[in-house]
Design brief:
Length: 312
C-alpha cells in the first residue's frame, strides 16, 4: 500500500496543500501570513460593521413595534419622548400639507409662506392678549383691543369659510350615518368659541389636546380639522388687517383715546379730592375706569377698523 493511502500519508497530503514540507512552509511563511492577516483584518472589520447594522436594525424594529403596540414602557423616558416628538412632527407636517391643499381648493390665496406668517402672527397676538392686568394701562389697552378684534373676527371668518365652501361645492365632511348639519353646527360652535391659543395652533392644523393621537388622514374628522384650520387662517388674516390699520392710523386713534382717558382721570381726581363716601361709589368709579379699558376703547378701535378687516 502506498504512503498516500496510509493515515499518515493522507494527513501529510493535507498539510502539503496548506504549505508543503517544512522547508517550503518556511520559505512561503512571510507572504502567506501577510495575506492571511490582511484578509482576516478585512473580514473582522466587515463582520463588525455588519453586527453594528444588525444591532441598529433590531433597535429600529423594536422601537417600531413598541410604537405600534403602545408598549412604550419598554423604553426609557427619553426614548419615549423622542418617539412621541418624532410622531407629532410627522403628523403636524402631514396635516399642514393638507391644510395648504384645502386653502388651494377653496381659493383663499394662502400659500406656504403666508401660512407661516399667519401662524407666527397669531401666536404673537396670544401673548398680547394674555398680558397681566398688573402690566400697566398701556398693556391692558392693547390686550383688550386685541381680544375684541379676536372675538369679532371669529364669526366673520366662519362666514367667509362657508361662502368659499358653497362657491366651490364642498360640503361639511361627515361619516356615513351621521347628521351632516349637526356636525357642521358643532364645528361652527367650536370654532367661534375657540380660545386664542387653540385658534392660533389650528392655523397650521395643530390640535394640541390630541397630542400624537390624530385621526387617520382623509377621514371626515381629519378633513373637518383642515377646514377649521382654513377658517383660523382667514381669522388670522382679518386680525392682521385690523392691527395694521390701527398701526397706520395710530395717531388719530390715540388722540381720541387720550381724550377719553383724560375725562376718566378727571372724574377719578374729583372723587379722590372730595373723598370716597361709600364702597358703592368707589366700585362705580372703578367700574367706569375698567369699562373704559375693557369696552370703550376697544369699541372705538373696532369701529374704525371693521370695514378694513372684512375686505377680501
Amino acid at each position: 500500500m502506498s504512503d498516500e493511502h496510509e493515515p499518515g500519508g493522507f494527513l501529510q497530503g493535507l498539510i502539503g496543500m496548506f504549505g508543503g514540507d517544512d522547508d517550503d512552509e518556511k520559505a512561503r511563511e512571510p507572504e502567506a501570513e501577510t495575506g492571511y492577516a490582511a484578509s482576516a483584518e478585512t473580514l473582522e472589520e466587515l463582520l463588525s460593521k455588519l453586527a453594528e447594522q444588525a444591532a441598529e436594525r433590531r433597535e429600529a424594529e423594536r422601537r417600531r413595534r413598541a410604537v405600534v403596540s403602545g408598549r412604550l414602557s419598554e423604553m426609557d423616558k427619553d426614548d419615549r419622548e423622542e418617539i412621541k416628538k418624532e410622531r407629532m412632527d410627522e403628523i403636524h407636517a402631514l396635516i399642514r400639507a393638507d391644510v395648504l391643499a384645502t386653502h388651494a381648493r377653496l381659493g383663499t390665496g394662502v400659500d406656504d409662506a403666508e401660512l407661516a406668517r399667519l401662524d407666527e402672527f397669531m401666536h404673537l397676538m396670544c401673548d398680547v392678549m394674555s398680558a397681566p392686568a398688573s402690566g400697566g394701562v398701556e398693556l391692558q389697552i392693547r390686550a383688550s383691543v386685541t381680544r375684541r378684534f379676536f372675538d369679532e373676527t371669529g364669526p366673520l371668518a366662519w362666514d367667509r369659510l362657508e361662502e368659499l365652501m358653497e362657491h366651490t361645492g364642498i360640503e361639511w365632511p361627515a361619516s356615513e350615518g351621521t347628521d351632516r348639519e349637526h356636525k357642521h353646527a358643532e364645528a361652527e360652535e367650536m370654532f367661534v368659541h375657540a380660545s386664542p391659543v387653540a385658534s392660533s395652533d389650528l392655523v397650521a392644523g395643530v390640535v394640541s389636546v390630541w397630542r400624537d393621537h390624530y385621526p387617520q388622514p382623509k377621514t371626515p374628522l381629519w378633513e373637518s380639522v383642515c377646514l377649521r384650520a382654513v377658517g383660523s387662517g382667514l381669522r388670522a388674516r382679518m386680525l392682521h388687517r385690523g392691527m395694521e390699520h390701527l398701526r397706520v392710523h395710530g395717531d388719530e386713534l390715540r388722540s381720541e383715546g387720550e381724550a377719553l382717558l383724560r375725562e376718566e382721570i378727571t372724574t377719578l381726581r374729583q372723587v379722590l379730592s372730595s373723598g370716597v363716601r361709600s364702597v358703592a361709589e368707589a366700585d362705580q368709579v372703578m367700574a367706569g375706569a375698567g369699562g373704559l379699558l375693557e369696552k370703550v376703547l376697544p369699541d372705538l378701535c373696532w369701529e374704525r377698523a371693521r370695514d378694513v378687516v372684512v375686505t377680501d
